[in-house]
Fold these 4 entries.
Entry 1:
Amino acid sequence: MGYLDLQDQKAFRHWVDEKKAAYERRASDAFQSLIEIDNDGHIPGPQMSEMRRQVQDYGFALYRMSGSIVDHLSAMRSIGAQVGLQALDKTLCAPEDRVTRLKVTESGRSNIYIPYTSKAIGWHTDGYYNPMHQRVLAFVLHCESPSASGGENELLDPEMVYIHLRQNNPEFIEAFSRPGVMCIPENIENGVLVRPQTCSAVFMNEAGDGQAPQLAMRFSNRKRNIIWAQDNLTREALACLTEFLQSDSPYRICHRLKSGEGLICNNILHTRTAFHDGPEQRRVYYRARYYNRIT
Ligand SMILES: O=C(O)CCC(=O)C(=O)O
Ligand SMILES: [Fe+2]
């Protein structure tokens, strides 16, 4: 039982009411849209409670470190550790470090991943191509230095997407809960298998036995390199989802991080707009991915 159970309409309706009430609180003047923390990343007690509350309500929280910051990287690691995030994702690009420095790569390589360019990135959750035993359930995105212009992030809580789809047609949830609904083909670079094919559901409940539901989502709106199940229900579910992502929903939050600001989240949907680096104003972000959630 619980609000992710399609049979339990009562729990679902109650949860929808709670989620909507949380967005009404967001609109009030008292709402802390940037939680102030110390310049070494330490999160004081009241701010910690607020951060956890916001992650519970919206899937994410934004923080701002006050004062001059000596070491952005260690501050960001400390932020993750304080909210209980431990297992850092080993990415293709930062195998030894597990925290990725995102900035425009100037080398002449033709197959640079989009995050290392100044291009826009469409709606996705992080690590949507990861094998099932390395599911990215949370990430921290921290800004050391913003671009000269552009490079905003839009954020959307997968729980609001789930609600929208279920209210349109509960069968969309069934379609998106099938473990093979979305497949990412293997990745071969220079003849070497870097990653095997991965198939998964879009919506997963990460809760252990007896725990409250914990919705996780895997998604990318890229057209290339994603093989969707070829049935009508999946096609309709995907159309409904895509339309929602393109619409002006009140649950989408847009923010451009300034130096010392960051996003901490349970791997919510996000985008990035294209940006321009100036000669003395280059965008430098850090990104850390985790296999556990903020609870
Ligand atoms: O650069 C950004 O703002 C976000 C990058 C991103 O979403 C990613 O690397 O997965
Ligand atoms: Fe991302």
Entry 2:
Amino acid sequence: MGLQGQKDGVRVSRRRESTLNFIDKVRVFVAAGDGGDGCLSFKHEKYMEWGGPNGGDGGRGGDVWFTAASRLTTLMDLHFRPHVDAGRGGHGKGSHKHGHRGDDVVIPVPVGTLIYREGALVADLHEDGQRWRAGEGGRGGRGNWSFKTRLNNAPRLAEKGGPGEKVTLDMELKLLADVGLVGFPNAGKSSFLARVSSARPKIADYPFTTLSPNLGVAYHKHVGFVVADIPGLIEGASEGKGLGVKFLKHVERTRLLIHLVDPAGYMGEDPLDGVKTIEGELKRFSSKLATKPKLLVLNKMDLPEGAQTLKTLKKKYRGILSISAATGDGVNALLDKVIAELAKHDGPLHFAEKTVDDSVHKVEQGFVVENLGGGHYVLRGKFVERASAMLDVSLPEAINRYQHTLKRIGVDRALKKAGIQTGDRVRCGEFEFEWSNAPLKRLNQKRGDGRTRIGIGKK
Ligand SMILES: Nc1nc2c(ncn2[C@@H]2O[C@H](COP(=O)(O)OP(=O)(O)OP(=O)(O)O)[C@@H](O)[C@H]2O)c(=O)[nH]1
Ligand SMILES: [Mg+2]
């Protein structure tokens, strides 16, 4: 027989329930799929001269989505796999074949997940099934068939796939429930949740049995509502004592709180003082919790001290209700009251601190030119960066077209104004080119000597 804690020579530690199974903050790295490259191809067939361009477009890159799923209550999956990548689009092929679309990735997150980008709230997934696109797949590059015009009917021109969006997001879960259960440890919160729903939280006769929130759906008189049970609170919880404070934010987005009281008090504290302690902690934690509708409920009425404690508490709190989560006594009357209160406070639960602000991340139509000194310039802007990334530098016609695009939108003028000289270098995203003041070649001219006005090279 091996030593206790050892099995077949391998040390095994007894599995402890830990708070690790509940993750409510996580940083996620999203990479939407790049678009597929466009194809440069001409029809070659026996007895057919000048078959014409037939290179197909690249497929679009896949998007990354987050969707709220009520079956989830933790961000743990993302904690262990924070990199989310969608599929890239297929490349175009000859004979007008377009590349396939990249696969989207849809990641389920718990209802109540708030998503921040550079500190600004960008999404509040507060409804089951609600979806939000975190990263947009890159556009497929166009093949030479798409560039065919009356003036240029044999374009040697194709685009590379556009880059998929890459973003870093901070996710925070603030559970959404209709009813939140608060109270000292051991008051019977988990027992109550188990009594009114099909949830089966751990229940035991010692404080801090519950280490992370539990959710359950209760039905009463054809009304369904979600109940959240959080770890017990103790004095000083709002300053970080015990476990409760970490989880108090998870009852901030409830319509109604039920404050459960144990007639025996907690750790020798008189139940009346105990009620004040918990109320004080809620108030100190946030004004939202202090002003939330609350029902004070004395539990464990089957215990001998129940009746006496109820009498004492009634003097101060006339509206107090009493139940026994163990026997079920009084639970129906409490649920009657709960559905009546919920009907009164039927407002939206998703009161995000700020309104969701997407304006910061709108597509920038314009561009910015910056002179870094020493003959180095930076060109910034969503459009120009994408055009640079999609440029196939091996195709002189594509380079010519790129130059004309920059000129058309005013980049040339802006660079000259910033003092650019022949031989200076301009960086745009990952791409860098050398500037020349020589005049541009005409666009759409027939295939020429392949010389271009600017020297192009990857960084
Ligand atoms: N007699 C009696 N015991 C109860 C009643 N409700 C809960 N208990 C007991 O009280 C103890 C604590 O119950 P829990 O439901 O785990 O209490 P909790 O508030 O969730 O505790 P924490 O998770 O530690 O905060 C358990 O032993 C329960 O069986 C009741 O109505 N009557
Ligand atoms: Mg519990």
Entry 3:
Amino acid sequence: MDLLIVNAALVTCDDQRRVLARQGILVRGNRIVATGESAALEAAHPDVERFDARGLAVLPGFINAHTHTVLTALRGSVEDWDGDMIYGYMSPVSYTMTDEERAVMAMLGCVEAIRSGTTTLVDPFRHVLSYGGAMASTGLRLWLSESCADIDTRKIRHGDYSEDPAFGAQFLDRAEAMIEALHGSHGDRVRCQVAAHAPDNCSPAMLRRLLDLAARHGLTRTVHLSQSPGEGKAVMAARGTTSAAYLDREGFLGPDLTAAHWTFCTPADIELLAARGVTMAHTPASISRRRGMHQAKLGLIRDAGVRVVFGSDNMTEDMFQAMTIGSILHRTGRGRAVEGGVTPGPDAILDAVTRDAAASVGAAAEIGRILPGYKADLTFIDLNTPALRPVIRLVSSIVHYGHPGAVHSVMVDGEFVLRDRRVLTVDEPALLREAQAVTRRVWERMIAQNPDLARPEADLPWLDL
Ligand SMILES: [Zn+2]
């Protein structure tokens, strides 16, 4: 279908960082074929259906460079607890859930993402093939991966770090099957990555197999890196070095790798990661939520020239939060003004959820900018909203004051998935009811299967909402 978007305030994210008034965008099929003055495009294409974007800012759709939609099942429970969330709750809950339950919670995350102006999710997790199709049915663009380990992540909280080749083989089989079934599917809207879960739960043999898998299929790769003191201790004990140096020794670092977190990276680790061209997926809101401002060496990381992209990570898909809190953290990390302004500036923050995030999955020439030839992944933000008036510097306003409630419409691959604030691809009220019921069931089953875990005290006694 051809569509001419008219009268837009256009944020191109192109090399000149153009922000333009009264712009038109001609969409043909799943691509942008022309941009320019609205009036000129209207005159040149009199018969094409119009979408009037008067009062709306149109941006490249946000790319969430690191998230786990299934973990919405933990929302509102573990954020305020201390202790090992990764092996204490995230791993047990994922094994507790049925395929159908994972699908419901993943779709909940997808719909939240859509309402947050997101068009692409990069989502490594477990048993992904069983629910990847459900995620795709929401209309989002996806980079999916089976987050592999050959040390049983269900045993680590009990101190058992023994290697388990059979456990690892199941992951590799699931990863192969997922790539076979999903990579390039849904009109190439769904693609796959290769994921190592983390350096403390992947042996050298597993890392080698994952490198081979990525090479055979030509896929980008991802990993969690230096995300907890426990990981650092385990890697030092088993491999005699830091997480980053261990991955480097096994040949796992490279420009096709995005590593999430970097929390406990040393200056030498950062130098190494920068030299290898590894992208940092930073999840500023998620990682600051439990224990205060994220303490990664963000100034060093930026000064080393590392490409930084943003994700929401756990229990939310809100990329406005990522931008707002990311801006604060990275400015704190830099700690100084540059050329009369502050750094990173709003354009760099927006890059972390658009063009740079696109580059991290090898799609810099396809998504992340609004230019002819790019995929029609667009976010429409309502400027007739109190938080975004007055408009003086549009990108600055969106980075600092944008919020999901201002998202008016979202287009992915040339199709609206949200239009006039209505989700078009999913029965949203039914999904919300189902997600509430699933979460209750999953928690009860997880506690029954893992009696050592604490149960959240729901202050609403599982209300039938
Ligand atoms: Zn993660």
Entry 4:
Amino acid sequence: MKKLSKKTIIVVIAIISIIVISLIGTVLYLSLSKDVLVFKLNGNDKMTLEVYSEYEELGVTATLNDEDISSEVTIDNSNIDINKLGTYQVTYILKHDEEEIKLTREVEVVDSTSPTITLNGASEVTVKKGTTYQELGCSAVDNYDEKVKDKIQIINNVNTSLPGLYEVKYVVSDESGNTATLVRTVVVVENNTQNTNIKDIVLDSMESNEIKSMKFTNDGIYVDGYIKDNNGTFKVILCDDKEKCTIYGMTKMGDYNFFGNIKLTGLNNGSYTVYVESNNKEKAINKQEMQHRIVRAKVGDKLVSFSYDNNNIKLKIEDFAYQYDIVIDPGHGGSDPGALNQYIDEKNINLIQSKYEKQRYEEHGLKVLLLREDLTYGTVMGDSSWPAVRRKAYAIGYYGAVSRFSYSNHHNSSDDKSLMGWEIIVPANSDISYLSHIYQIRDAWSNLYPTTENHVRLYTRNYNTSVIFTKENEEKYSFTDYYAVIRLPQELYNVNHVLFEGAYLSNLSDYDWYYNKDNWKKLSEEKIKAYVTALGIDYKEPE
Ligand SMILES: [Zn+2]
């Protein structure tokens, strides 16, 4: 045999190598080209559906080597009852290679619609002092819970022996915890008057030395009184401890009534007794309930305080000094929860926010008073049988009188679940010098808030007509304010009080954005920035 040349051996090895490599490649190719099966749910494996809505089958994606085999899938959604709350399972079974592959989807049928409350009778009721308030109740219907009408809760603190504004609250929750609230305003008026305005309530028993009502003005007080035993001229006299007296002539109205202004700005510091004089000089009395009396106010550069000893009116004048920079009223409290949703009460959220703001102001070196520190009415407002709104107004006025600013924190609620956004409510006659920091807050909140709804607004409201007026520009109105916690501090204490309504608790997406996502802190920071700046301090970001 001919000896194989070196060249031939190399060629043979090369050929063998090519064959081996090709074989390995084929085996690899065969092992990699196994069937590709895809079997998955379209949409999520958990679905939530509103009761009485429609279940739409989203199906599955099933492919074998990119070829649609979804017709081989058996879908069973027959147990879903969209008219009944519950959790249901949908199964998807694919038979492939003698094997059964199963997927499931959970479908929860829920009720997230709140009941609807309708009042029997009017939403504002006037009753005379000493008579009985007749509760007409309300009706409630729910889209699902048929027994909801048996679950109505009526919160009623009307005291017909005490004139004032009261609220009767109707609260109902369906079995899924969706809550609705509605309020009826009850005005208890004195027996002898048709007028429902608290400031005009006149008391029955006139005495000949009576000052019926007093009101702070820019430089003193306005009084309005009654003298039975008269000679046709009327005077009010202020006498200090040393019986040094100042006489003020009053204007006669009818046979027995008088009115007039008493200028206090020229008087020396000290204590004064108030007299009325016509035929005789007698100590003046004021028989109104404490909650209707004026107590103290900043008048010029003086602090003027009234006290009522045995109905006799005493007056004290001293140099004015601020005791607080800001008084914050965390809205509602005690038995009054304010607005509600299934997660939180307004009195709670108002308190959380007010405490946060207080701490932030204190980080700026400011002195802040909270009108309540917990969910009760707290010690500042004291123990009192006064209606809630009166007690609030009294505390706001009393402490606001010695504070540079005061405001209430509130949150909105409405039967219209689509409403969302913030509101700021200011006194009707407040002017630009008082409001410039409020405009700053308005602008910042408008930028932050994720809505352009018409409830993003700054306004005031007329007591008599209930009509809302914008305060977007520098409008100044002379009408009486609608909200008692604005109206009464101004009438009784010269205090400009502001209400902040942060969000609608009744709108769950508004609540979620505002509260769960902590955006309320951003809104609070804008408020803090504006107030500390108005007080002449540089704003510091939170740490
Ligand atoms: Zn409120």
